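With this grant's support, we have settled on a layout for protein records. One resulting record is reproduced below.
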Amino acid sequence: MNPLLSSPDDDGAAPSGRPTPESTPFESWDLPRTPWLLPGRCRNPRRRTLLLEVTSRALFPTILVFSVYLLCVGHYGPGGGFSAGLVAGLAFVLRYLAGGSTDPGAVVTIRPPVLMGVGLTVAVLTALAPALFGAPVLTSAKLVVPVPLLGKLEIVTSLFLDVGVYLLIVGVVLDLLRALGSGIERDMRGAGEAT
């Protein structure tokens, strides 16, 4: 019998579902002592992949920083809002594969349709803003902003368009994860109830 699935009356397990170390030391020596590895209640402890969980938690911030780097250098090298959004979306996909449906919600508290709407609004307003000054739509300019201790910082206005596209792509990926993941989990629950 799996010690994680036993009740407190069966083998002397703790009320949280974890066996106490003194009751079954051989079966529980490799269980995590603290819940920092799991985003929530694990559906099936036998299907848990500890290596994937730890790796995704280590790589997630690094991939997001790389996506922001791609976003910022999009006009001076390969990159931009679309490719940066795809890289950030892949980070969320990796996090979803490791932790399930509870993990992306723990990372992003904004609903995906709101994120898509904000991204689309920023992109459209940035594209139409030059028309207010008599320039053609999607015209970009270079802004020079003085930053203390760093000197002058040059920002291309099309960066704001890329930020909008970035938010839009991340929102689409999160919405796809929510939609497809809920269907997969529903099918898994149905298959588990049938057996």
